[in-house]
Design goal:
The chain is an alpha/beta fold. 38% of the residues lie in helices and 17% in strands. It binds adenosine monophosphate.
């Protein structure tokens, strides 16, 4: 990992600090249903405020086309203030005279949240004029939004080129954890890739086979690999058009000395719903009217046994349809085993991307792995080995 500057290297007293954060939290019926992302940025805000910096928050929310009231950050800023335990002022825009006045009125330690950056087309276009308008509001730029770092937008990338740029505490923790997991990992390294479809994770699988020692494939995507090995997976989720691709991935893994672990048994059911009645079956004995909805006990045991001698685990995607009982069984069992090994100091474990955070929370290990990334797309692109523009810009 190239080096980047952190808040330890910054002189922030009296400075106007533009801080890109992730406030893109889930909202249901007007209420923030999961404040994890808000809690993650508190250390950075507190750190800057305690150093006497003026904290000016930049963030996007949703995918608005222009200014849309439903995508205002105002209610989110109020929730942030409650979690932060200090006032958070709000400006109705993120550029312009009124915002400049609000910034000019700030005292050291104050926190001001600006309106959704995506209300301006210049944000996603990384328009230099928009970058300059944002930059005029600050002396220093801090990026604490790893989850948006796969986008080269004005507030995630452009600003880093025109202001002194630093990684915030969450960005720093994320980059350090990711480097431990795939950058310079202790070996052997196991990757678990589960979830629904091979098609969405082709690049991920292709990159991992040359980086890790063991690749455990679970979830719906394992069915495509089982079909590629000539097994009949009944009416399981299976991408038959990708069977040849699955074979190529297996061949690439073999050439790279990476062991692929596929399920050998499964929880099979006739209906995709909770508690439909199921049986445990070897993957070679799935009936035409059955679906594989989770890995079975022998497969789980094999993964856990392999974990005992693993030094580093990186995990994306559940083993089964974990939202429906009992098809959360394999995910929960492996997550608990990983958490226990991590707690015992025997394993570095990093999980993230999409549904993985909720799967880990569901397993009750939300605080027990080395690091759980709340980033979706950015975590996957990192696992795919792609450079993230927002991170690259910090390391120049
Ligand atoms: P992803 O977003 O690709 O990580 O996929 C997560 C989704 O995959 C979850 O909603 C799971 O319910 C689903 N999933 C995992 N295993 C299976 C399976 N065997 N059959 C159908 N869906 C599955």
């Amino acid at each position: 990992m190239s080096s980047f500057k952190t808040l330890d290297n910054a002189e922030l007293r009296g400075k106007r600090v533009l801080v890109r954060v992730d406030l893109n939290v889930p909202v249901e019926n007007g209420v923030v249903s999961d404040a994890t992302r808000i809690d993650r940025i508190l250390p950075t805000i507190r750190d800057i405020a305690e150093q006497g910096g003026k904290v000016i928050l930049l963030a996007h929310f949703g995918r608005p086309k222009g200014r849309e009231a439903k995508d205002s950050l105002k209610p989110i800023a109020a929730v942030l203030a409650a979690h932060l335990g200090r006032p958070v002022a709000f400006a109705d825009d993120c550029v312009g005279a009124a915002v400049s006045d609000a910034v000019a009125a700030m005292a050291p330690g104050d926190v001001l949240c600006l309106e959704n950056t995506r209300f301006h087309a210049g944000e996603e276009k990384n328009d230099p004029a928009f970058v300059a308008a944002l930059a005029s509001l600050g002396d220093v730029y801090v990026n604490d939004a790893f989850s948006a770092a796969h986008r080269a937008h004005a507030s995630t990338e452009g600003l880093a080129h025109v202001l002194p740029a630093y990684a915030g505490r969450t960005m720093q923790a994320e980059l350090e954890a990711l480097d431990k997991a795939l950058g310079k990992p202790a070996r052997p390294v196991m990757a678990i890739v589960g979830g629904a479809k091979v098609s969405t994770k082709l690049e991920l699988l292709g990159n991992l086979v040359s980086k890790v020692d063991v690749l455990v494939i679970g979830g719906g995507m394992a069915n495509t690999f089982l079909a590629a090995r000539g097994l009949d997976v009944g009416k399981s989720l299976c991408e038959r058009d990708l069977v040849a691709t699955a074979r190529e991935i297996e061949a690439k893994a073999m050439a790279a000395g990476c062991t692929i672990l596929l399920p050998v048994d499964a929880l099979a059911a006739k209906e995709f719903k909770a508690n439909p009645g199921h049986r445990v079956a070897p993957v070679s004995d799935i009936k035409a009217d059955e679906m594989i909805l989770d890995a079975g006990p022998v497969s789980v045991e094999a993964v856990i046994t392999c974990l005992q001698t693993t030094e580093t685990l990186v995990w994306n995607g559940p083993f089964g349809a974990f939202e429906l009982e009992p098809f959360d069984t394999a995910t929960v069992a492996v997550a608990k085993a990983a958490a226990a090994l991590t707690k015992a100091g025997k394993l570095v474990s990093v999980a993230g991307g999409g549904d993985t955070v909720s799967a880990m929370n569901h397993a009750g290990v939300g605080d027990d792995l080395t690091y759980i990334s709340t980033a979706g797309g950015a975590f996957l692109e990192w696992m795919e080995g792609k450079p993230l523009p927002g991170v690259e810009a910090l390391t120049e």
